[in-house]
Amino acid sequence: MATLRLEIVTPDKLAFEGDVESVVIPGSEGELGVLPMHIPLMTQIKPGEVVITQNGKKDYLAVGEGFATVTQTNVNILTDMAIEWQHIDETAAEAAIERAKSTLAGRHDLSEEEVASVQASLLKSLAQLHVRRRHHS
Amino acid sequence: MAANTRDIRRRIKSVKNTAQITKAMQMVAASKMRKAQQLAIDGRPYAQLLNKISAAVNEVHGDEKHPLLQQREVKKELVIIISTDKGLCGALNTNLLREAAKFDPEKTLFITGGRKAAQWAARSRRNLIAEFQLKDTPSFVETKVISKMAIEQFLDGSVDKVSVLVTRFVNTLTQEPVVFQLLPVSASPSNTKDMEAAREAGGLDVEFEPNSLAVLDALLPYYAHFAIYRAVVEARAAEHSARMVAMKSATDNAKSLIKDLTLEYNKIRQASITTELLEITTAQMALG
């Protein structure tokens, strides 16, 4: 069976590299299932869940914002966060959400930049929590 | 004679103190270096992929020009210099600023990150439009301010080209100043290979989602932000490496100086003892 070469990279590491049968990407226009021989595509991705099927087994990762490029044989995902669901720390994510919410609610002297960065981290934490809860069993 | 030995003793003591200080600085730099190098090396796959994507986008969108891709005749150039805040890191800043001096002062504006570059710009009366202070471990938010300013300058037409001058970290012993073009975003020679790879793998018919403009709007500024962030991370790795090496050679020099001085001191000491003995024996012989 044809496979796709998948690479997920974050600024601090190569989070995933391998040949997979399919991958689901959280595109900005909605979820996007990619199989081998997909037409070349480039999309923005939003914080959410990447589902990888490798050797018949599924693996779930929480990812942050970024970009994905798809060619017939390769999928490259460039994102600022990628955590496998087993490694997501639920309490830490919850704490981060609380912190972000209170920062956004309490302070009005934040610059545009700061608000954007807090909001981005809020979305990332929410994505983590979402992925973790879905597969926690 | 006695005064001379005292002088030498005093010098040995002061050199020893210096050696202790440089040794401590070497240790500090070494530990910071390890962290900074790790950060620089771990970030490379990400930077390469981003380069590849940007090169591919550039290739695909050769005709339909996004503002950040537009090549204009270069009347004014903006140069972003990333230097260190502190000295004592060998020839790092000297080499960097020698490159900076090559830009035509009439046609070049400067943004500096790091105190040394700012001092240089002020001293040599360059056209400095902004200076930024960077923390020891650079954060993305912090460096984004710089790239944002550069993008604004480029978009409103004040400058036609933005370059970055930074010390690239090659390895612990080698750091070299490099200049790369930030804006307009272009495929530099280093990623022509990537571009070919992208072309082969994907062909030129790439679909964009939601659409090409939205992707470019998000990708290109991000590319610029990240390029600056990378530059700063690499500069830090280079700085700490250079400082560690400089401090190590300072410590070594101090040690060999101590050795020489001790030898000298012992020689004088022995010589004076010998003379004293001689005097005593001669005196005894004269008496006896």
From TrEMBL, chain A:
Function according to Swiss-Prot or TrEMBL: Produces ATP from ADP in the presence of a proton gradient across the membrane.
Principal location class: membrane
Subunit structure comment from the entry: F-type ATPases have 2 components, CF(1) - the catalytic core - and CF(0) - the membrane proton channel. CF(1) has five subunits: alpha(3), beta(3), gamma(1), delta(1), epsilon(1). CF(0) has three main subunits: a, b and c.
Domain ATP synthase F1 complex delta/epsilon subunit N-terminal residues, every copy: 4-82
TM region(s), chain numbering: none
ATP synthase epsilon subunit C-terminal domain residues: 87-131
Native source organism of the sequence: Chthoniobacter flavus Ellin428
GO CC list: endomembrane system; plasma membrane; proton-transporting ATP synthase complex
HAMAP family for the chain: ATP_synth_epsil_bac
Identification of the protein by name: ATP synthase epsilon chain
Pfam families in UniProt: ATP-synt_DE, ATP-synt_DE_N
Gene Ontology molecular function: ATP binding; proton-transporting ATP synthase activity, rotational mechanism
Compartments in which it is found: Cell membrane; Endomembrane system
Family indicated by similarity: Belongs to the ATPase epsilon chain family.
Keyword list, A-Z: ATP synthesis, Cell membrane, CF(1), Hydrogen ion transport, Ion transport, Membrane, Transport
Membrane topology: Peripheral membrane protein
Claim: Transport is one of the keywords in the record: yes
Automatic annotation (TrEMBL), chain B:
Presence of keyword Hydrolase: yes
Membrane topology note: Peripheral membrane protein
GO molecular-function term, one example from the UniProt record: hydrolase activity
Cellular component, GO, one term: plasma membrane
InterPro entries: ATP_synth_F1_ATPase_gsu, ATP_synth_F1_gsu
Record's keyword annotation contains Hydrolase: yes
Pfam families xrefs: ATP-synt
Keywords associated with the record: ATP synthesis, Cell membrane, CF(1), Hydrogen ion transport, Hydrolase, Ion transport, Membrane, Transport
NCBIfam families xref list: ATPsyn_F1gamma (TIGR01146)
Subunit structure: F-type ATPases have 2 components, CF(1) - the catalytic core - and CF(0) - the membrane proton channel. CF(1) has five subunits: alpha(3), beta(3), gamma(1), delta(1), epsilon(1). CF(0) has three main subunits: a, b and c.
Role played: Produces ATP from ADP in the presence of a proton gradient across the membrane. The gamma chain is believed to be important in regulating ATPase activity and the flow of protons through the CF(0) complex.
Name of the molecule in the record: ATP synthase gamma chain
Originating organism: Chthoniobacter flavus Ellin428
